[in-house]
Amino acid sequence: MNRPTRKTDFWILPQGTLTLVRPLTQRASEWISQHAQDDSQWFGPALVIEHDYVANLLNGMIQDGLQITQ
């Protein structure tokens, strides 16, 4: 039986003490705008997150039903 595939919403790229979180869908972009602080740092289209905060961010994404790939 084929399962419906959901498009990946976020691409996660760990880079040492920082992690890049790139929204890939409109839904992901809206989620980031609602949950990221106004003074967040960006590297191109990716949100830059310190390692200590990544787990909380990812847990929130998963709880809200977003799909993540690394």
Mean of residue pLDDT values:
92
Domain module tally? 1
Q: What gyration radius follows from the Cα positions, in whole Å?
A: 12 Å
Spatial strand sequence of the major β-sheet: 3-4-2-1-5
User: Which architecture would the CATH scheme give at its second level?
Assistant: 3-Layer(aba) Sandwich
The largest β sheet comes out as: 5 strands, mixed
Quaternary state, please? single chain
The CATH topology comes to MutS, DNA mismatch repair protein, domain I
Which outline best applies? globular
Fraction of helical residues:
25-40%
CATH C-level class: Alpha Beta
Distinct helical segment count: 2
Task: Give start-end ranges of low-pLDDT stretches.
Answer: none
SSE arrangement, N to C = EEHEEHE
First and last CA, distance: 26 Å
Structure described in brief:
With 70 residues, the protein is α+β, with helices and mostly antiparallel strands. It is built from two helices and five strands.
Describe the structure.
The protein has two helices and five strands; from the N terminus they run ββαββαβ. With 70 residues, the chain is α+β, with helices and mostly antiparallel strands. A five-stranded mixed beta sheet has the order 3-4-2-1-5. The longest helix is centred in the C-terminal third of the chain and has 13 residues.
Provide the descriptors you would attach to this structure in a database record:
single chain; 70 residues; alpha+beta; MutS, DNA mismatch repair protein, domain I; five-stranded mixed β-sheet; 5 strands; 33% helix; globular
Helix and strand arrangement:
Elements: E1 10-15, E2 18-23, H1 26-35, E3 41-43, E4 46-50, H2 51-63, E5 68-69
